[in-house]
Amino acid sequence: MSDNSFFKLIKEDSTTNARLGELHTDHGIIPTPIFMPVGTQGTVKAVQQRELVEFDAKIILGNTYHLYLRPGMEVLNHFGGLHKFMNWDRPILTDSGGYQVFSLSPLRKLTREGAKFKSHIDGSSHIFTPENVVDIQRTIGSDIMMVLDECAPYPAERKYIEKSIDLSLHWAERARKHFLNTSPYYEHRQFQFGIGQGGVFEDYRKQYIEKMVEIGFDGYAIGGLSVGEPKELMHEMTAVSTELLPKDKPRYLMGVGMPQDILNSIEMGIDMFDCVIPTRNARNAQLFTTRGKINVRNLKHRFSDELIDEELSIYPGNTFTLGYLRHLFIADELLALQVASQHNIAFYLWLVRTAREKIADGTFRQWKTNFLNEFYPEK
Amino acid sequence: MSDNSFFKLIKEDSTTNARLGELHTDHGIIPTPIFMPVGTQGTVKAVQQRELVEFDAKIILGNTYHLYLRPGMEVLNHFGGLHKFMNWDRPILTDSGGYQVFSLSPLRKLTREGAKFKSHIDGSSHIFTPENVVDIQRTIGSDIMMVLDECAPYPAERKYIEKSIDLSLHWAERARKHFLNTSPYYEHRQFQFGIGQGGVFEDYRKQYIEKMVEIGFDGYAIGGLSVGEPKELMHEMTAVSTELLPKDKPRYLMGVGMPQDILNSIEMGIDMFDCVIPTRNARNAQLFTTRGKINVRNLKHRFSDELIDEELSIYPGNTFTLGYLRHLFIADELLALQVASQHNIAFYLWLVRTAREKIADGTFRQWKTNFLNEFYPEK
């Protein structure tokens, strides 16, 4: 069911393609542009749910592939969905599982019917079809679900992409049909996004988006990017896509990325982001701060009294010093992973919150340029 | 400097040897009996400092051996001590490092002078003497410091113990002398405890305590227990010790233990406890709750809607279900370690808080008996 009250476009920036909007879900309103922390298996790694609320996460992401295997559908069904299971009453978006089938499964086979794969945990055999992936996401109870697609690798030739988008579009049609013919299992509405593919070929990207818009989804994602292609190509494909996507629907750039990628993509008109970088890099001692990246294992921080991020003025960046956090990493303490993950999530949420403020007051372009030049320069 | 305002005995139980007291430090008043969460390397594993405050930890423990090696004295000196380094403004007690020299160092040698050892991290050579261990704890800035001693193994023959207590008493005299001849490095007072040794031999225990009391410390610990001896012997030695220890000084049973050991020792007149069990066992999925121990990995919890500990009515026990926590453990998520560690610390602090309330209202013996019989029966 397409629901017109789902997305509200609030403002378009006058000097860029950036936009302010709102996603209205039954678990709350999500202001856009937004970053969605990744909670793969029903937890954002090392960050507690109440901390996500403290850092003002408006929505988190769950991975259908992982949740389907563990805890599994029986458990999620018993608990009444992922929100209740993990004690999170704000919105959740789930991906379709397609990406993990390609990146994690030791053995997989694509057919017209769906994607057959073996579990990376125990080798058991499974199949994802456009239809059962909708059903699985109904059991999970995500507010926003994604359609099953093939996330083509990079590099891939035109011939490969041609076959791939033919299959993904066939799946998208079936997914939408099944979504419209079924109802949520719980008391809240669900929305469904299509995912634009097409590799790094402009004509395929355009062709795909046109057909997807014909089918008609509640929102549109740009998929198959940030998979190894040069940054320029990623930006090019993003720009091509946002030009064609309808203005009155939200746009989600999947799996992106670094702070500079996020701000540059907001400039092109992207509304939603998710990425494991803030938490994964945190576990490798890389901090993102308002004054740039910091590798906190570096010996130079041994005696550092500097706070992790005083300007952010939110826990834990306003509390612990680089010297203490370095010690925690060197001593292999769990608190290192906790503090670094918390901080990076808080920073990413600050980043999109600030972007929204700057779009609102008309200074986004200038702020973005200065901030990136000073603290996150392109190499 | 012995300070008479340090310990206040507030009440003695009428039907047991349990007692209520207060330790007055410059970082706050510690009600006794108390449990001290162990923060080995400047962090209580997987539990954040602000969470310790939330769970009402009145004092935590740091390990001199670990802190001396990492972050090291230069760093702690630069930061002005452990309190500032780790952002903890409540009291800290540090052990002498002796125990870790025996349990962790790959090579060590005891001489009259002190304990020579090699670092378990990089093999570098070090020596702990009664004097430099005082100095190290002055650099750490702990509110309560312990003297260097030999923690004799179990089993050990009378002959071994005889030599061992001769050395430890010699060290204790030197430690006290050095403590009295030196001053704190920071703005707060420090207190020094002696540690009673003597293996499992009543006469040696008594002899040791008499000499220790002659030397005169701010408090007395009972050491060398909970090192593998039968529980009856541990209780016997504890009872022997508390009979002889002065009533107007705090008594600390080192490294003990399970909930039943703590309540039984409170009954014998012990005031202070520390143990790694709540956090270490948490990381192995063992929960301590108001209704007994729970191994949360157990398959039977897969569909459990039961909260971890509703009766405790404190986060996270009042928030997450056993089913969710089991999933986190099975899926190898960091949040599992965080939630289980938090809960177990909260439970241990609840245990001693409740013991204090029961001593205050005169129902300690009855409550203890019922609680242990029902939820923590002796095997």
Feature tags:
homodimer, 379 residues, alpha/beta, TIM Barrel, 2 domains, 8-stranded parallel beta sheet, 3-stranded antiparallel beta sheet, globular
Largest sheet of chain A: 8 strands, parallel
Order of helices and strands of chain A: EEEEHEHHEHEEEHEHEHEHEHEHEEHHH
Q: What number of structural domains do the residues of chain A give?
A: 2
Note the quaternary state here.
Answer: homodimer
What structural class should be given to the helix and strand makeup of chain A? alpha/beta
Pair with the biggest interface: A-B, 38 and 38 residues
Work out the helix count of chain A. Answer: 13
Structure, described:
2 copies of one chain form a homodimer. In chain A, α2 packs across α5, α9 packs antiparallel against α13 (364-375) and α11 (322-330) crosses α12 (334-360). Chain A has an 8-stranded parallel β-sheet. A 3-stranded antiparallel β-sheet of chain A has the order 1-2-3. Helix content of chain A is 42%, strand content 18%. The longest helix of chain A has 27 residues, at 334-360. The first copy, chain A, has helices at 49-54, 64-79, 82-86, 98-103, 130-140, 158-181, 202-215, 231-244, 259-267, 277-283, 322-330, 334-360, 364-375, and strands spanning 7-12, 19-25, 28-32, 34-37, 60-62, 92-94, 108-110, 115-118, 125-128, 144-146, 191-196, 219-222, 251-253, 272-275, 286-289, 292-295. The first copy, chain A, is globular, with a radius of gyration of 20 Å. Chain A has 2 domains: 8-275, Queuine tRNA-ribosyltransferase-like (TIM Barrel, Alpha-Beta Barrel), CATH 3.20.20; 276-364, no CATH class. The mean pLDDT of chain A is 96. Chain A is α/β, with parallel strands linked by helices. The N and C termini of chain A lie far apart (45 Å). Chain A contains 13 helices and 16 strands. In chain A, α8 links the parallel β12 (219-222) and β13 (251-253). At the A-B interface, α2, α11 and α12 of A face α2, α11 and α12 of B.
